[in-house]
Amino acid sequence: MSTLDFTIVIVYLVAMVGIGIYFQRKASAGIDSYFLGQRGLPWWALGASGMSSNLDVSGTMINTAFIFALGASGFFIEIRGGVTLIMAFLMIFQGKWNRRALVMTLAEWMHFRFGKDRQGDVARLIAAFSIIIVTIAMITYFAIGSGKFVAEFLSIPAFLGLSPEFWAATLMIVLAMIYTVASGLYGVVWTDVFQGILIFGTIFFICALSFFYFDLPDIFNVSVPLREGGFMALETTRDAWTNLWPSWTLNMPQESTYSIYNLFGIAILFYLVKVTIEGSGGTSQYMIQRFFASRSDRESGLLSLFWTTLLAFRWPFIAAIAIMGIVLGTQQGVIQDPETVLPAVINHMVPIGIKGLLVAGLMAAAMSTFDSTVNAGAAYWVKDIYQTYINPQATEKQLLSHSRWSSVLLVVLGLGFMLLINNINDIWGYITSSLGAGLLIPTLARWYWWRMNGYGFAVGTAAGMIAAVLQRIFLPDIPEYSAFIITTVSSLIGMIIGTYSAPATDEAVLLEFYKRTRPFGFWGPIRKKISSQTMERINKENKRDIIATFFAVPWQVVLFLTGMSIILKRWDQFAWLLVVLAALSLGLYFKWFRHLSDEVKVDS
């Protein structure tokens, strides 16, 4: 990069640190300020922050790799996580259900659902430890991607036997840690808003550059990674590459790591089932933290809508980068590693000055995801382990101290595991289809099955997480759907055994949970205790939310594909997508948006 580019990046980094330090005093008022911003942050800021947090560099590099290697069909592989389809469920009902608990973390929520006796304590501890483990894995994932990205632009040498990518990731993470540790959620949200502006400038520039100045040739080569190392060039056509309608099968060579997606239709169905389970059960970490911090049911819905709409711009950007990567390949030879298409395009196809802005924008994407993950992960140690079980009399000063030191420790562990994994898709596939899957079944059942108790959640989660670790050790190369089945079946068996090994949760706890949350599902014995007038209102809300979800899920997919079709210049498919998008939007308006309410009504 030129001196001008480096100057732009340095100014951006200094600005980030400055914003974090500015909000340090507000965050220091207590852990409610540090982790939830006193539930006083506006919905649009929380939504913009969520969007920035989802736009991580690691995910963008993986998504670009799939689009580059597989064409527009690569979008559907990332239904597994990169499309963030869980937002449709959060928007309609999961966001408001979680907000109504008025808690700080998912682990604290366990006391709300299972009570404060031993079963609630066990569920809370298991939830806290499992999410801390997933947080460390996510930090590793972010570190690998940001290290690969930043090392492409900064001439960082290998040192102490460690790679340039490791030191590049360390540099980024240390800088992000300064404002994250200092200012908590205040700093995270407002730096994310600032970074979101920078990210959108980056997106619009790249999309315009690709649309007006780069056209795909009729026939060209792409590249796919091989199982034994190295890469293979494959020939494709413009029509096939830009086709947004997925085929039932792919024809990847068996020696390619992408051959696991050859049964493409089955893979897509598997990812849709996984996302439906995940979305219906809610989420944890930084995503759910935004809903815990929201001010009302209505604002939970609005921040979700804003968040999802902003995320839609990610996919035209990814398609634009992939197109430019292909054109670059026709000029100087195909880019071998699909995961390096993003930095390669910026390095070779973006002019001086603009390159600095783009690098700063993508560093912003990496740092915003990282800071949200660390801030949310630290809350589980401070609120759910240290304050609840180790030092209940801890002062606010002690709690804030633990908030900061636990953030640092999570980062050190995440960086340490980076030394063991080099492939972004490898760690992302493991998180989404194995490690994270250990939480799915208990996380789902806790909303919809009245009989499930804290022991069921604890044993189910522990069984799933242990199965995920054993799978990684003994069966590291099995397909993602096989890893998912092993983990979820283990979790399901553990949950059933744990649930029926002890009595049901106290009825008074279940009544309080149901009246405040109002979920649908198998709550017959509890619903009988509630007045018929109240149940009539609850049933009406539940029916409306279920119908709205059937609009919201395809609406989000079609919204993202519509933006991609413009960059791909597939006007035939754009016309159909636009018609479908308009119809789904009308359905969402009448079944969801106009029914948003400001307050939670607690009835007896």
Overview in brief:
Helices cover 72% and strands 2% of the residues. The protein has 604 residues and is an all-alpha fold.
How is this structure best described in words?
The protein is mainly α. It has a domain at 3-419: Sodium/glucose cotransporter (Up-down Bundle). The chain contains 26 helices and two strands. The protein has a two-stranded antiparallel ribbon with strand order 1-2. Helix 5 (57-70) packs across helix 9 (118-151) and helix 7 runs antiparallel to helix 14 (297-311).
* CATH A-level architecture of the domain at 3-419: Up-down Bundle
In CATH's first tier, which class of the domain at 3-419 applies?
A: Mainly Alpha
- Taken in chain order, the helices and strands follow as HHHHHHHHHHEEHHHHHHHHHHHHHHHH
Instruction: Kindly report the CATH topology of the domain at 3-419.
Output: Sodium/glucose cotransporter
Number of strands: 2
The Rg value, from CA coordinates, equals 23 Å
Number of helices: 26
The CATH homologous superfamily of the domain at 3-419 is called: Sodium/glucose cotransporter
Poorly predicted runs are 600-604
Kindly report the oligomeric state of this protein.
Answer: single chain
Residue share in helix: over 70%
Taking the alpha carbons of the first and last residues, their distance comes to 65 Å
Widest sheet, order of strands: 1-2
Main β sheet profile = 2 strands, antiparallel
What proportion of the residues form beta strands (DSSP E)? under 5%
Content-based structural category: mainly alpha
Name the shape in a single word: globular
Mean pLDDT figure: 86
